[in-house]
């Protein structure tokens, strides 16, 4: 129900923006072709900025959105809207340059259009700053392309994306000094939605983590090696019983020490216990490879809990948990919170035996809660584990009633994609398949 309310609110704002455009540009809409280009350019600018504001809300770590949609969906919406926003904002100056250059003559030409564009840049107030903002957005969307993103470290990608705030500030005066939202009700509305969005960002991305730090004084209790490549960081502090989170959620973690000050998202790898928090990570990059060097006592800033990968979205009382590699961390926490006797099974797949994290803990849970745990190792033959991958044949053999269960899935993107295809082929309804992809 909350999802529908949030979507309705977004559509209401979209309708208001279209109404303001119709009121301000109605004389152009029914005019000549150059005037239609001008009206289209104005609309593209308004919608482009509205989508940028939507982007900020989607990645603003707003708990209501995170709980109801989950990180994975919000991230997908964020990327799609990012490309749409850029397309609209690029079309905005092109359409206006075409329209104004041909307004008197009705003739379109490349030279006249280019000349009009240069006139905008050099003679119109705040246009040059808006153009710089557009260049920043083009760079941001460019590094978000998969082929480029894979070649960048997380820290570089994260830092460049912070420039979106610079871009919005640069373009703001241009928005409120021209066209459909420069006066009257339109101006007040535009100011309200802009400051409301920035208020949300300020509250959830900056003020709330500082408030949590002041309340709990988080610090590293200990760092424990789980496997040759997986380490767990235990974090404690004051009033830990008052830090509420649900198993399956994650937090953005910042260690206040040299070489670790960038914020990174990590899933809770153990359920709530009122004493400490545990995050587990595999050494796969510059940051995670340095985790063993973090000293006890290091102060920590936490932004969370976030995400909707929780049991609250389950439609049944029977579960299948599929984990691949370090994707076992939220699965481990979810299993932690199951009631004794819950009908549940865990299938945990890795490439090598050295990647099998939390096996002693899973063994204890299997005995105490009667949860069936099966491990898969693809590249080695390991006693007690199945050789191969989690596929439809293995799922059918081990969990024949899978179509009657809620399935929670976390692992590498390729493994998750194949597992979802297999689950749907086995008759698992889409609403019973729960997953979050934490790739940036």
How many domains would you count in the coordinates?
Answer: 3
H/E element string? HHHHHHHHHEEEEEEEHEHEEHEHE
How much strand content do the residues show?
Answer: 15-25%
Tertiary shape: elongated
CATH class of the largest domain: Mainly Alpha
Query: Rg from C-alpha positions?
Result: 26 Å
Count of individual beta strands: 12
CATH topology of the largest domain: Four Helix Bundle (Hemerythrin (Met), subunit A)
The low-confidence runs, each spanning 5 or more residues with pLDDT under 50, are none
The main pleated sheet reads as:
6 strands, parallel
What features would you describe in this structure?
It is a single chain. This protein folds into three domains: 2-210, Up-down Bundle (Four Helix Bundle (Hemerythrin (Met), subunit A)); 217-306, Translation factors (Elongation Factor Tu (Ef-tu), domain 3); 311-435, Nucleotide-binding domain of ferredoxin-NADP reductase (FNR) module (Rossmann fold). The radius of gyration is 26 Å and the shape is elongated. Helix 5 (127-144) packs antiparallel against helix 8. A six-stranded parallel β-sheet has the order 10-9-8-7-11-12, with helices on both faces. The protein has 440 residues and is of the alpha/beta class. Helices cover 51% and strands 15% of the residues. The model has no long low-confidence stretch (mean pLDDT 87). It starts with a helix and ends in a 5-residue tail after the last strand. The chain is built from 13 helices and twelve strands.
């Amino acid at each position: 129900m909350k999802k529908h309310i949030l979507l309705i609110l977004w559509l209401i704002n979209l309708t208001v923006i279209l109404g303001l455009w119709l009121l301000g540009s109605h004389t152009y809409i029914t005019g000549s072709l150059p005037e239609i280009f001008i009206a289209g350019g104005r609309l593209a600018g308004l919608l482009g900025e509205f989508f940028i504001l939507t982007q900020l809300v989607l990645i603003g770590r707003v708990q209501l959105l995170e709980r109801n949609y989950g990180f994975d969906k919000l991230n997908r919406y964020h990327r799609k809207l990012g490309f749409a926003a850029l397309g609209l904002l690029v079309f905005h100056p092109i359409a206006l340059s075409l329209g104004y250059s041909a307004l008197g003559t009705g003739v379109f030409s490349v030279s006249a259009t280019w000349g009009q564009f240069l006139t905008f840049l050099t003679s119109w107030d705040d246009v040059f700053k808006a153009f710089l903002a557009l260049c920043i957005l083009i760079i941001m969307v460019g590094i978000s392309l998969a082929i480029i993103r894979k070649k960048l470290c997380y820290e570089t990608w994260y830092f460049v994306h912070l420039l979106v705030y610079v871009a919005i500030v640069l373009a703001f005066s241009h928005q409120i000094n021209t066209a459909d939202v420069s006066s009257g009700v339109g101006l007040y509305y535009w100011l309200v939605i802009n400051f409301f969005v920035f208020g949300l960002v300020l509250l959830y991305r900056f003020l709330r983590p500082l408030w949590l730090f002041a309340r709990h004084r988080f610090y590293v209790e200990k760092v424990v090696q789980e496997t040759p490549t997986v380490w767990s960081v235990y974090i404690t502090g004051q009033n830990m019983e008052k830090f509420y989170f649900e198993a399956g959620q994650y937090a953005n973690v910042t260690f206040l020490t040299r070489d670790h000050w960038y914020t990174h998202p990590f899933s809770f790898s153990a359920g709530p216990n009122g004493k400490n928090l545990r995050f587990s990570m595999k050494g796969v990059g510059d940051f995670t490879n340095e985790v063993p060097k973090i000293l006890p006592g290091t102060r920590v800033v936490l932004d969370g809990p976030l995400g909707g990968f929780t049991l609250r979205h389950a439609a049944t009382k029977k579960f299948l948990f599929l984990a691949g590699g370090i994707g076992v961390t939220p699965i481990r926490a979810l299993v932690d919170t199951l009631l004794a006797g819950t009908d549940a099974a865990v299938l945990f797949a890795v490439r090598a035996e050295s990647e099998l994290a939390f096996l002693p803990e899973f063994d204890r849970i299997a005995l105490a809660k009667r949860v069936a745990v099966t491990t898969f190792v693809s590249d080695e033959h390991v006693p007690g584990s199945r050789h191969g991958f989690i596929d439809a044949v293995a799922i059918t053999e081990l969990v024949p009633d899978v179509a009657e269960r809620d399935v929670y899935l976390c692992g590498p993107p390729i493994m998750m994609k194949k597992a979802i295809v297999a689950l749907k082929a086995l008759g698992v309804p889409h609403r019973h398949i729960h997953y979050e992809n934490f790739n940036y």
